[in-house]
């Protein structure tokens, strides 16, 4: 038998979430902006549901799913542990990370954590005694059909004492109102058996949103109001024709004297014989600024003798050596080299020539890749050097092409009103490598993860 647990739920859950806490519906969609604490509410709810069985000495299981397994440890795994601690029973559970599980020592009640990228394992596991399933960051999934494939499996494993298996979804609505998950959740509003709940940081009455959080929110609100509406109010604000607000690309005539570059990041989009190769050098400062310091850009257009991968390997190596040893940031550590995941020849050539690996980017839908850049821009932390420190190398020492390509970067007319908006794929090589840099280094750059 578990010890008697006393928790003042009214001090842990905002009144706005009372419909979620008291719901008797089998299907519950929680959508809202960042810092709305919807995930915290679901975590507390799931622990409470399991406790009802544990206090009776019975076993009950819960499944928690994210689209990609590698995101589990730093998100839902920690969130459920946080909720167990709130109820004062974390010590009654043992944890494992291969696979991710939190197991109640006395009853065997278990929180199972899965990535749906390993669907066959998810489908074949016969868990049993199931009372609830939670899909966190549900917008990461490809369609509601992915849920349908697993839900039926879980329903068959219902606990004998439960009236049903309850399902929870939580996500920040994509800015595109025609995203499949926005259309799907809207279609479920008002349906029998479904709760669709909206929230934002403005619904906080208990002081969970700190003064520091509010300062960050206000900064983004002042920099890019539409992005603020999307990120913090959870509003699908839509997509304009131009992808980026160029006023958020801040020029810098020289490096700040009161801030130093502590890390360097290199990112490359490649072309060879047909299209251009762009390699950007970016610096992260101690105060959190992200600066495009320099760029290598080679276009084979109009060239009779085009550069081979061996030529580009040499060029890029010299570019990195020259930029990484510039006096103002020569002590900065090279944190990561990122490359287009479709590029194999130059990556292999570079390793053969120089013994150094380039990490292939984990590509997402274009609209999601763009969103990482939007996050950085809206925070007001991105800058570029108007006149990069000279390396004296050919095809380097200018950020002009970088700015011009971003100015011309546009959505293809008409595709905004679809689940998969597309961009004009012309003169976009610096644009792509900037996206790769933001996506691959999101945690270091304090972007959405």
UniProtKB/TrEMBL annotation:
Residues 26-235 form the Phage terminase large subunit N-terminal domain. InterPro entries: P-loop_NTPase, Phage_terminase_lsu, Terminase_L_C, Terminase_L_N, Viral_DNA_packaging_terminase. It holds the Pfam family Terminase_3. The chain crosses the membrane at residues 37-56. Keywords: Membrane, Transmembrane, Transmembrane helix. It comes from the Bacteria. Signal peptide: none annotated. Residues 269-436 form the Phage terminase large subunit C-terminal domain. The keyword Isomerase does not apply. This is Terminase. It comes from Oceanobacillus neutriphilus.
């Amino acid at each position: 038998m578990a010890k008697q647990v006393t928790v003042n739920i009214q001090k842990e859950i905002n009144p706005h979430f009372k419909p979620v806490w008291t719901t008797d519906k089998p299907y519950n969609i929680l959508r809202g902006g960042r810092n709305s604490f919807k995930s915290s509410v679901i975590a507390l709810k799931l622990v409470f549901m399991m406790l009802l069985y544990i206090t009776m000495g019975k076993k009950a299981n819960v499944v928690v799913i994210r689209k990609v397994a590698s995101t589990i440890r730093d998100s839902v795994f920690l969130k459920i542990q946080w909720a167990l601690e709130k109820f004062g029973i974390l010590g009654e559970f043992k944890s494992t990370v291969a696979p991710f599980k939190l197991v109640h020592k006395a009853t065997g009640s278990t929180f199972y954590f899965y990535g749906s990228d390993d669907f066959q394992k998810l489908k074949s596991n016969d868990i049993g005694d199931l009372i609830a399933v939670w899909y966190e960051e549900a917008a990461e999934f490809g369609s509601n059909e992915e849920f349908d494939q697993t839900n039926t499996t879980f329903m068959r494993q219902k606990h004998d004492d439960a009236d049903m298996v309850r399902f929870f979804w939580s996500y920040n609505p994509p800015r595109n109102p025609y995203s499949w998950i926005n259309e799907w959740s809207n279609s479920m509003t008002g349906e029998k058996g479904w709760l669709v709940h909206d929230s934002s940081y403005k619904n906080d009455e208990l002081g969970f949103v700190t003064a520091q959080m509010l300062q960050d929110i206000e900064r983004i609100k002042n920099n890019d109001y539409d992005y603020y509406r999307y990120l913090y109010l959870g509003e699908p604000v839509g997509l304009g024709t131009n992808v980026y607000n160029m006023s958020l690309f801040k020029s810098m005539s020289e490096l700040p004297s009161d801030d130093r570059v502590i890390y360097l990041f290199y990112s490359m989009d490649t072309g060879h014989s047909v299209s251009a190769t762009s390699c950007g050098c970016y610096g992260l400062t101690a105060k959190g600024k992200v600066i495009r310091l320099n760029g290598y850009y080679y276009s084979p257009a109009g060239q009779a003798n085009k550069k081979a991968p061996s030529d580009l390997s040499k060029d890029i190596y010299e570019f990195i050596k020259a930029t990484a040893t510039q006096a103002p940031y020569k002590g900065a550590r090279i944190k990561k080299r990122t490359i287009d995941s479709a590029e194999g020849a130059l990556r292999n050539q570079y390793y053969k020539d120089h013994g150094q690996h380039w990490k292939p980017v984990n590509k997402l839908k274009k609209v999601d890749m763009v969103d990482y850049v939007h996050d950085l821009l809206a925070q007001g932390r991105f800058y570029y050097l108007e006149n990069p420190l000279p390396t004296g190398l050919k095809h380097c020492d200018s950020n002009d092409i970088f700015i011009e390509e971003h100015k011309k970067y546009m959505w293809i007319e008409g595709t905004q009103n679809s689940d998969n908006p597309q961009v004009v794929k012309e003169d976009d090589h610096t644009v792509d490598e900037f996206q790769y840099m933001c996506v691959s280094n999101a945690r270091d750059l304090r972007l959405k993860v």
